[in-house]
Amino acid sequence: MTLQVACGNDKTRCNFFKMKKIKFNRNILVTAIVMLAVGLLIGWLIKPSHAEEPTNNSTIQQSNNQTWTCSMHPQIRQSEPGQCPICGMDLIPLDDNTSSEGDPMEIKMSPTAMQLANVQTAVVGFGMPTKEVRMNGKVQPDERLKYSQVTHLDGRVEQLTINFTGEPVRRGQRIASIYSPELVTAQEELFAAQKIKDMQPGLFTAAKQKLKNWKLSDQQIEGILTAGKAQERFPISADVSGIVMEKKVNLGDYVMRGMPLFDIVDLSRVWVLFDVYESDMSWAKVGSTVSFTIQSVPGENFTGKITFIDPVINPAMRVATARVEIANPSGKLKPEMFASGIIKTQLAGNKESIMAPKTAVMWTGERSVVYVKNTTEQGTSFLMQEVTLGPLVGDNYVVKKGLEPGTEIAVNGTFSIDAAAQLAGKPSMMNPSGGAVMTGHYHGGTAPAAMQPMEVSKPAKAAVKQLFDLYFPMKDALINGDFTTAKKQGDDLKKAFEKTSMGLFSGPAHDHWMKHSGAAVVTLNKLVVAKDLEVARLHFKPLSEQMVALAQAFGPFDSAIYVQHCPMADGNVGADWLSLDKEIRNPYFGEKMLKCGRVTETIK
């Protein structure tokens, strides 16, 4: 109907509209077919993505099952990343490569685990072991150039030409004038003897000799005879040149023959006296070259040789004095100036030795361990290697046995490697045999059995207990960051060690006491002069080592003593301390990581 209305009676026009409608319907059909094809194509393309969905879910599930641990406290296990509740370090994923597959002695670590643990390695080789001994000292006058200027007459001081300390004096310079009645009488006797010298020449000679005994020169005596009149004032001349160190007389004082007027010292040559600790005495010898600086003379270096070492050690400071003599023509080095010196000594034999960085060694004892790196097609692994160490020279140990030149070892992150070995049940420093981690106290690369207490008398045991009564307050002061109290307690502990008689101990107990008490006093000498809290905490570690040894040998006491260990102290080397409380309160870090550590032994 509509079409007819639109066309009217014009058939041609109606046919045109019919053709347009058919063409329009065909275009719609083609468009629909194309859209359907495109939809099918898109559906086919995204179909594989839906097929992989189970795989992604598996990955997510695997991530959710990941175990996270702390490299410093491997007993911490969590199912998600975070921070260690003990030390606050970021947790690391427990790597599957640390499993027990492969060599049972090696611990495998992936590159990611090594990076997270900050593991660094280095190749060991030969080096010339040179020990550096640092010393502190003072400039002092040469004792051989000290003099006392005395008077040779009895009399009253009428004049002084030297009036203050520090004034320079030249030899022969007139320094005082003295009125002496005895000198006046002696001159009168000389005049009387002169008159009869032809008859009694011996009397005249004796009168002149009397004046010579009072240090009058022949020229002065001839002047008196020429003048024919007795002198009332007699001049005193300086016997030496130097600096007045002390003025001992004032104008008008009455002095007696032989009484010192001034102390004079010649500073053209001086001594520099250095304190050498007992532990360093084997490195300081007569003839050793010392390079030193003076705080008051910045930018200038001095060199001298040790000419003398005191044969007796100072019992209070446990040091011996080493003397260096040096010329001082310009006088720039003044008595009481502070000096800092270094002795560089090569080890006996003067040959190259295998050297290993001290950060690579897990302990500082005679028997220690390092981790040797081994890289293969299967990956990187580390093998614990026991080594025998020589002395510590600078930042390196001399390795006597256990390593060959060219061996690559871990020099940083060694404790993280050891922790990974413990988690995998592999041999480690704390557990050389592998398996479950041991909980007993350990020293060095092995975990020896606990020492059996030694039989000692009651006075000896009471004396040792008194030492621990002073040790524990010092430990608490370090925990609280109280530097002043820690130093005071350290000084009291040092005095208590020195007052304890070695006669209280006998047999093996005597040897044990001498070994560990001496080492404790050496450490306390350094602790009580520490400049800050961190230095005091550094010296607290070797002190605690000696106290642990004494507690194991001479305990138990009235209450239990807990041996506690922090693996992060001393640059991740680890350190022990003693406590009366089982709860961990770390003296090496204080509030920073108060709970870092664990109990390794109970002495009860």
Mind explaining what this structure looks like?
With 604 residues, this protein is an alpha+beta fold. Among the domains are: 2-51; 143-265, RNA polymerase II/Efflux pump adaptor protein, barrel-sandwich hybrid domain (OB fold (Dihydrolipoamide Acetyltransferase, E2P), Beta Barrel); 269-346, Elongation Factor Tu (Ef-tu), domain 3 (Beta Barrel), CATH 2.40.30.170; 458-603, no CATH class. It contains 13 helices and 28 strands. Strands 4, 6, 21, 22, 23 and 24 form a six-stranded antiparallel sheet that branches. It has a six-stranded antiparallel beta barrel with strand order 7-16-19-18-17-20. The protein is elongated and about 155 Å long.
What does the main sheet amount to? 6 strands, antiparallel
How many strand segments?
28
Unreliable stretches (pLDDT < 50, length at least 5) are 1-14, 16-24, 47-63, 97-101, 436-450
Instruction: Report how far apart the termini are.
Output: 116 Å
Mean pLDDT: 79
What coarse outline follows from CA principal-axis ratios?
elongated
Portion in helices: 25-40%
Question: Which structural class matches the secondary elements?
Answer: alpha+beta
Q: State Rg.
A: 45 Å
What count of helical segments does DSSP give?
A: 13
Strand content: 25-35%
